[in-house]
Specification:
By secondary structure, the protein is α+β, with helices and mostly antiparallel strands. The chain is 51% helix and 14% strand.
């Protein structure tokens, strides 16, 4: 727990988020998800709640929440409707890159605007040919006087349509060995004061199975001029390190979303199992259903504890790539498991769009893929296991 935040503060914040999620998110989740409607009104509410500045330091106008509190916020939001959390989560990943790696001038110029949601963004790493393998990106930035000229495409970029800023990973040296030393990261303000995209920036919305109602797009840069002053840290060749440096917090975040999905699906299933009757009694009294609910509830709690462990190490500034990897791997798989089991408990009704459980089922798998696949998490865990236990 950060010394800036007492237990009473934490409870007050979580109570506020709990009421907001139940009163504002739950009533509109189904309509917005089914029709893929961007929740613009919620964005304004997020500004008022301070969510866009949740983890940004108080020196820059943010709340400066520790990961332990922030993860609990994300779990609650995702337990009701996972997608809106991406609006502030992706934004805060960009803010974290600036706060960790930016120059003092960059922090002063961007972070106060980001903390109040005036500048809302995300992080543009993935390309059509490069996801986990970030060294393989092809987007380039070439120095031209006081500017850099960016060319290339990014895909699966959150907040790229309704936001107005991105942290963009590029190649500034195509011949660097190893390749990651040729990468750099820029803060790109994508829109002008009137909300129009800058010349050379084109966005194309992607249609998704789940995680709807939040803008995800392919972003193309064609001779886009960016001031050299927007090179994060002011030095070329640091982009890869800047990108992966925030992965621990990012994975705690994704773990929290997975745990939220697991929790939400379990709560829906437990309620339905008490309402639905077969053979003269509620199905929660049938052993087959009890076995499912018992396994689901246990995974929810185990995921929560793994997240708490990773967040505690992160807040203590201890190395936590193994713990964050474990939390991300287990919690996201728990989300898939609980959503799948809940579908079975709901039976035929699970296939009706009138029930929320089908949305949890569609949203769950993304958490196993995003922020590093779970296959990669297991490799990281294994390598850390060997490194920490040498023979």
């Amino acid at each position: 727990m950060s010394e800036l935040w007492s237990k009473e503060d934490e409870l007050a914040i979580l109570d506020m988020i709990d009421k907001w999620a139940e009163q504002e998110l739950r009533p509109i989740a189904q309509e917005h998800d089914h029709n893929d409607i961007y929740p613009a009104d919620l964005v304004e509410q997020m500004k008022e709640l301070g969510l866009f500045g949740a983890t940004i330091g108080q020196d820059w106008g943010g709340m400066g929440l520790p990961a332990s509190i922030y993860a609990k916020i994300v779990i609650k939001v995702a337990s009701v409707w996972m997608a809106p959390g991406g609006i502030f989560n992706s934004h805060l990943i960009q803010a974290s890159a600036i706060e960790r790696c930016g120059t003092e001038e960059q922090k002063a110029r961007f972070l106060p605007r980001m903390a109040i949601g005036e500048l809302r963004g995300g992080i543009a790493l993935t390309e059509p040919n490069a996801g986990t393998d970030l060294q393989a990106i092809r987007t380039t930035a070439v120095r031209d006087g006081d500017d850099y000229i960016i060319n290339g495409s990014k895909t699966w970029i959150t907040n790229s349509i309704n936001g107005n800023s991105l942290a963009v990973l590029v190649k500034t040296d195509l011949n660097a060995v190893p390749a990651h030393k040729g990468t750099s990261m820029f803060i790109v303000e994508t829109k002008d004061a009137d909300g129009n995209f800058l010349p050379g920036i084109t966005v194309s919305k992607l249609t998704k199975l789940g995680y709807r109602a939040i803008d995800t797009a392919e972003v193309t840069f064609e001779n886009v001029r960016v001031p050299a002053a927007n090179l994060i840290g002011g030095e070329e060749g640091k982009g890869f390190v800047q990108a992966v440096g925030g992965l621990e917090l990012g994975r705690i975040n994704v773990a929290a979303r997975g745990a939220g999905i697991a929790r939400g699906a379990t709560e829906l299933a437990a309620r339905y199992a008490q309402e639905r009757q077969t053979f003269g009694k509620p199905i929660c009294q049938h052993q087959a259903i009890q076995l499912k609910l018992g396994e689901m509830a246990t995974k929810v709690e185990a995921a929560r504890l793994l997240i708490e462990q990773a967040a505690a190490k992160y807040d203590a500034h201890e190395r936590c790539d193994m713990e964050a990897g474990m939390a991300k791997y287990f919690a996201s798989e728990a989300g898939v498991f609980c959503a799948n089991e809940a579908m079975r408990i709901f039976g035929g009704y699970s296939y009706s769009v009138e029930y929320d459980i089908e949305r949890f089922y569609r949203d769950a798998m993304l958490m196993c893929i995003g922020e590093g696949t779970n296959e990669m998490q297991r490799i990281i865990i294994a390598k850390q296991l060997i490194e920490r236990n040498p023979v």
